Amino acid sequence: MKKLLILGGTYFQVPAIKYAKSQGYHVITCDYLPGNPGHKWADEYYNVSTTDKEKVLELARSLHVDGILCFASDPAAPTAAYVSEKLGLPGNPYDKIVLLGEKHLWREFLRKNGFRVPKAKPYLDVREVNTDEWRFPVMIKPVDSSGSKGISKVSDKNELAGAFHYALSYSRLKIVLIEEYIEKVGPQIGGDGFFGTSRLDFVCYGDQVVDDSINGYVPCGMKFPSLLSSVLKKNITDDIERAIQLSGLKNLSFNLEVMVDKNDHVYLMELGPRNGGNCIPEVIQNYTGVNMVALAVEASLGNTIPVTPGSNEHVFAYYALHSHIPGIYKGYCLSGHFKGRVNNSYIFLKEGDKIDVFLGSNQTIGILLLEFDTREDMDAFFETPSTYVEVMIEQGNA
């Protein structure tokens, strides 16, 4: 029986854990939160942080695992690569995974290889920044955070220091990226894909949704399929395939974030070396029939499976339940006006738990996986979600 070490046991890792178990694999999980829901599905659990490369390596070596998987977790991706490289397990080299996972390295890689990329520069200290170098507004980002945490748009130099320290608080590496602001047209494009040994085997694009009343840079939903034109879709797909080919990565599950400007220029903002969070793989499977979870699990053990997308007349989405105010979570309910179906839901909080304003994915209450008969119904839902779903918050300090 093959042994698979899965890094993390949150709701987002549960599909990978369940799939691996269904295939008869011996599943081991680890992280520093014993109460995470995924651990109860695993055969074994160890209290080891997924970002501690050496301790995870020691654990994997002692257990004689056949594979290691990072699923839907940015911080764990370098650890999985480090361990697989040290133990000769299926996977990609550590330095290549880090290239995709750290924004400043990724921007430089794109620039050197002739891709369109915004001006960007990393800093360790705000005192290093010469504001005369920058045309405002600019974006301030941690180079290594996940879930859109720590990101700000800064309109003038007087806002810079506060945004810089906010970003720094979310960076494990303590590096902040200042980046040229790109005026995008339409929604940011998201989704997941899989690159095999030499080509892009599969990619699925969705239109990202944000709650502009709180923070325009934290996704609160994604609609599938994207309304990208066929020309733009081809241009993006060609750029993604070329970038991964140049990187040398293989058998890679990845999450994407792409921007398109008013001139239809494509910017590959992120190609995260792991599946997307917020249950994006499950939404894509509902829409296309392609089992993104299976692709990732089998690749981590050196196996391949065919990719055969199907067609679907319905449309699909995820919606992140969230709060506009700090307080106490008291549940949620759907109104009688809701025209879709909830295919699945993952609620992270219990009634009575504290919740803060939705400024990052760490303040997500839960995820609803939605299906609609028509695009019009889906668009209507996302135009005014509060008409269709009520999140009940008892106001107070979280």
Polypeptide structure, described:
By secondary structure, the protein is of the alpha+beta class. It is built from ten helices and 19 strands. It has an eight-stranded antiparallel beta sheet with strand order 13-12-9-10-11-14-18-16, sandwiched between helices. A four-stranded parallel beta sheet has the order 3-2-1-4, sandwiched between helices. Strand 9 and strand 10 form a beta hairpin. Helix 2 (53-63) packs across helix 3. The radius of gyration is 21 Å and the shape is globular. The mean pLDDT is 96.
**Gap between N and C termini, in Å?**
46 Å
Query: Strand sequence of the main sheet, in spatial order?
Result: 13-12-9-10-11-14-18-16
Low-confidence stretches: none
Could you describe the largest sheet, including whether it forms a barrel?
A: 8 strands, antiparallel
Number of E-type strands = 19
- Continuous helix count: 10
The percent range for helix content is 25-40%
Radius of gyration: 21 Å
Report mean pLDDT, rounded to a whole number. 96
Report strand %: 25-35%
Question: What is the H/E order?
Answer: EHEEHEHHHEEEHEEEEHEEHHEEEEEHE
Form type: globular
- The chain-level structural class is alpha+beta
